[in-house]
Design a protein that fits this description.
The protein is an all-alpha fold and 429 residues long. It has a single domain (4-194, 216-419), classed as MFS general substrate transporter like domains (Growth Hormone, Chain: A, Up-down Bundle). It has 17 helices and 2 strands. The chain has helices at 11-33, 39-45, 50-66, 68-78, 80-100, 104-132, 138-155, 158-167, 169-190, 216-223, 227-259, 263-291, 295-314, 320-334, 339-347, 353-381, 396-416, and strands at 387-388, 391-392. Strands 1-2 form a two-stranded antiparallel sheet. Strand 1 (387-388) and strand 2 form a beta hairpin. Helix 3 runs parallel beside helix 6, helix 4 packs antiparallel against helix 16 and helix 11 (227-259) packs antiparallel against helix 15. It is globular and about 70 Å long.
């Protein structure tokens, strides 16, 4: 054998392969939360209220969630390169449709295509991480994935709001779509599924006989034989449902109406919440790897975020410093949800890792998928008739009622984590 064939890939090459997938994930997260800073424009252009806006935003999540199980199966069978490149291509097309949409119908079609296609990004990154990184680095790489996604969300905050003020929302959505198409080409030409394709040893665990050859349906049935799979589908949905329902759609109008922020200021605070979430991911993931435990950090994070959200929702007129501090604390504590992916990967046999990750990511996105339109429905049902520049304005009681749904799911998540089985950071056989 040559020297290359007896050594693992250099770190810089591993991060490069993973990084192109991360750029696509960044774009997917950007598209996920972009409506939050364009609420007035979207409601005006498509003549919709809170329920309609919630549904428009949630069309992203409908297809995203629906794609998680097949994405995990395809990642195990076909490899991440094809999935990531095809996903970026379809996401670019969806972005073009959304930016050019003449009616609500076409806007929903665009969001549906974007959500379904970027759904491959996270699972594809996890598959690349499993092949290109040592097992001890997996939770860290997963946390860094969240960090990259949040960078996309930050771009969808103040920077996007400022550009929308200057040029309108449609041109920037069209430019975003063209960038996504360029990423599709880069992934196709440069990414490789496994270090073996570059002449290096792979970190991928050997699969057991019959594992990957089993049917897709059999694989899905098999992972649900493990208790942690069920629980880790439900738990992160409450965490992510809170943070993306607030920062991804309803946080800006809440802060503008009840704390008298300018839209750009409210977007900045939303971005700060997401940055805290991004920092929490690698911090908690790395610490979990270091101490060799998954469950204690997850419990602590869930209890903390429940307390923070409860005060934000039910205590009116918080001092600015306390409001900002609680939002940052909620974001930081939410980073613990990233443990879900390492946790579930270790809870099932290695050959089912991609499928399990897809199923858990389905649970993650079920939170905002359900909560964003549900909160919108409650806001509309409690609307008192107030309008500002053609857009509905909602009272504090309406927001409290809507945000209570977030808090209920977060509490359920904090309870369910107690019933998970610790893996001690060791892969199931």
């Amino acid at each position: 054998m040559s020297k290359l064939q007896t050594s693992y890939p250099p770190t810089r090459l591993s991060w490069f392969m993973w990084g192109l997938g991360a750029v696509f994930y960044l774009i997917g997260f950007y598209q996920r939360v972009a409506p939050a800073v364009m609420t007035s424009e979207l409601m005006h252009d498509f003549a919709i209220g809170a329920a309609g806006l919630g549904n428009l935003s949630a069309f992203y999540f409908y297809s995203y969630v629906a794609m998680q199980a097949p994405t995990g199966i395809l990642a195990d069978r076909l490899g991440p390169r094809r999935l990531l490149a095809a996903g970026a291509l379809v996401a670019g097309i969806g972005g073009l449709i959304f930016g050019l949409a003449p009616t609500m119908f076409w806007a929903c079609v665009g969001r549906l295509l974007i959500g379904g296609s970027v759904a491959v990004a996270f699972v594809g990154m996890l598959k690349l991480a499993g092949n290109w990184f040592a097992p001890r680095q997996f939770a860290l790489a997963t946390g860094m994935a969240l960090f990259c996604g949040i960078i996309g969300a930050v771009f969808a905050g103040v920077p996007l709001r400022l550009v929308v003020n200057l040029a309108g929302w449609r041109p920037i959505m069209l430019v975003s779509a063209l960038v996504t198409l360029a990423i599709a080409l880069a992934i196709w030409f440069f990414v490789r599924d496994d270090p073996g394709e570059k002449g290096y040893l792979s970190y991928a665990l050997p699969t057991v006989e019959g594992g990957p050859k089993s049917s897709a349906l059999q694989g899905v049935k098999e992972i649900f034989r493990y208790r942690n799979t069920w629980l880790l589908c439900l738990i992160p949905g409450g965490v992510v449902g809170c943070i993306l329902t607030f920062s991804g759609l309803w946080g800006v109008p809440f802060l503008v109406t009840h704390y008298h922020f300018a839209p750009a200021q409210a977007a900045a605070l939303n971005s700060a919440l997401l940055v805290a979430w991004a920092l929490g991911g690698p911090l908690v993931g790395g610490l979990s790897d270091r101490i060799g435990l998954r469950k204690p950090l997850y419990i602590a994070g869930n209890i903390t975020l429940v307390g923070a959200w409860a005060v934000i929702i039910f205590v009116p007129a918080l001092p600015l410093v306390l409001l900002v501090g609680l939002l940052l604390l909620a974001g930081l504590a939410s980073g613990g949800m990233i443990i879900s992916f390492a946790f579930v990967k270790e809870s099932v046999p290695a050959h089912l890792g991609g499928t399990a990750s897809g199923i858990v990511n389905m649970g993650v996105m079920s939170g905002p998928m359900i909560l964003q339109p549900a909160v919108g429905l409650i806001l509309d049902s409690n609307w008192q008739g107030e309008l500002f520049e053609g857009a509905k304005v909602y009272g504090l009681d309406a927001f409290r009622s809507g945000f209570s749904l977030m808090l209920i799911w977060a509490i359920v998540s904090a309870v369910l984590i107690l019933f998970t089985k610790e893996t001690y950071c060791k892969q199931a056989i």
